[in-house]
Amino acid sequence: MSLSDRLAQARRDRTAEPDGDSPGGQSAAPGPRKRRSTRQDPFADVRREVHHALIETLGPKLYDARLTSSDLEHRVRQTLQEVLGAGDMPLTGSDRARLTQEIADDILGYGPIEPYLRDVNVTEVMINGADQIYVERAGRIHPVEGRFADENHLRRTIDKIVGRVGRRVDESSPMVDARLPDGSRVNAIIPPLAVDGSLLTIRKFSADPFTVDDLVAFGSLTRVVAGFLAHCVRGKLNILVSGGTGAGKTTTLNVLSGFIPEDERVITIEDAAELQLHQEHVLRLEARPPNIEGRGEVRIRDLVRNALRMRPDRIVVGEIRDAAALDMLQAMNTGHDGSICTVHANSPRDVLSRVETMVLMAGVELPIRAIREQVANAIDLIVHQARFRDGSRRITQVTEVVGMEGDIITLQDIFAFDHSLGFDQDGRSNGRLKSTGLRPNCLTKLAAFGIPVDPSVFAHERPGW
Predict the structure, then answer these.
(1) Rounded Cα distance, 454 and 124, in Å
(2) For all residues of the chain together, what is the average pLDDT?
(3) Within 13 Å of residue 449, how many CA atoms lie on the same side as its CB?
(4) Which of 20, 110, 221, 429 is the most exposed place for a label (fewest CB within 10 A)?
């Protein structure tokens, strides 16, 4: 069947499209898991034909390194119009525009998820197999109509994403962490580990990173707390940002890093580079997984050790999740103050247990008391963040590590979230971050750096909270 005939057939199929609740309107569901009902795409065959014709027409020009991205996009769209304009093709203007955009997205971008990656209101894209895509908007998850043609189409998209950052995913290495050029975080897992088809999760990062003013506007923290944290960063306190998955730790880490003075040498260390610091003197390091022979791995721990030889003023680690905790504690205790890291934990107290556990993962035979003394001497402040049931992300505690009492590390909350105000009619929390009335011990250290802090900041009931 010619391309023109396929286009005509697609038009007839679209006109006679069955209702989504009828058997003809549902796609087959692979495996035992129930798939969301989706309509058969009437343009699937046409899109495939036009796609192949486009490849044949442009050929190696698609991979010509001398072409800029804008030049390549212009050639692709021009050729698409020529292919679609050939012959008697009964396409409406809207159908033609839709096909052009979808095929251009597939060639130049990441196929059916490209519109959601461009949407500034989408914060996460979740692909649960070729025929099921969800997105997160304003903290809520919604299904969308986009879908991949089949499993092979999804796998090609995954390969395109991970290949651009030198990663790979195949049966011998079926899980991968990667990033998009804008820093958005990508996780992919494929069969045989993913039973019902390949899974892809993309946590988007804004092209224009959030600032402290944005977090105040969102209600993540108050202006007073933001000012105190800015003093703590400038005063070179060692800070851990903690919270659960999706709590907004990396965003908060990025904002806190923005308070680092311009004249300091900052080294960032991440599994997949996603921090967006605006200081001039920033050196970005990224871990590397092992190659297909199992060699060449460079871990976060290796990069932390190497960073100590690079004359850093600050070390910012995207996330501490293994034995690198020991090396970070050593750095913090040997003159590299002002370090900032994130840790997965459910509370500030749990942060300390997590750090202890990760230090033990280093295989060094240290007594628990010695580890706790290292932790108490190294960490000054814990900023804990949580994701509420309404989808909002809030800082719920700013906690100071005071020191040791016997074998226990003592903590005190400087600011804590007040949940007593309940929720509004839309289910959003009316609570707010308030001072506990305790004056932190770190004020002495800040004063030594010439950073005086107004004691009224810590008044239990401060006007304007």
Answers:
(1) 40
(2) 82
(3) 16
(4) 20
**pLDDT of 234-245, one tens digit each?**
999 999 999 998
> Could you tell me the pTM of the whole model?
0.74
Contact 153, 130 (CB under 8 A): yes
The tokens of 220 are what? 């993540």
Task: Could you list the beta-strand ranges (E) of 331-407.
Answer: 340-344, 381-387, 393-405
SS3 10: helix
Residues of the chain with CATH 3.40.50.300: 212-458
Tokens representing residue 110 in the block: 């990441």
Residue by residue, DSSP assigns 78-117 as HHHHHHHHSS-----HHHHHHHHHHHHHHHHS-GGGHHHH
Q: Does residue 385 sit in helix, strand or coil?
A: strand
d(CA 198, CA 192): 9
Structure tokens at 219: 């209600």
Token digits of residue 279: 């200081």
- Say how far apart CA 198 and CA 151 lie, in whole Å: 7
Can you spell out the DSSP letters for 150-174?
Answer: SHHHHHHHHHHHHHTTT---BTTB-
Check residue 277 and give its pLDDT.
85
Beta bridge partners of 416: 397, 434
Helices (H), ranges, 16-68: 44-58
CA 259 – CA 297 distance, rounded (Å): 33
Dist CA 344 CA 141 (whole Å) = 22
Burial (CB < 10 A; 0-12, 13-18, 19+), residue 78, is exposed
CATH architecture assigned to 212-458: 3-Layer(aba) Sandwich (3.40)
Buried b (16+ CB within 10 A) or exposed e, 273-297: bbbbbeeeebeebbbebeeeeeeee
CB 168 within 8 A of CB 162: yes
Distance from chain centroid for Cα 48:
32
For residue 112, whether the previous peptide bond is cis, meaning omega lies within 30 degrees of 0, is no
What residue type is assigned to position 411 of the chain? L
Mean pLDDT of 430-458: 89
| 445 vs 443: CA distance, rounded Å | 5
pLDDT tens for residues 56-93? Answer: 666 665 555 565 667 666 676 776 666 666 655 566 66
DSSP helix/strand/coil, 9: helix
Element housing 264 (H / E): none
State in words which class domain 110-206 has.
alpha beta
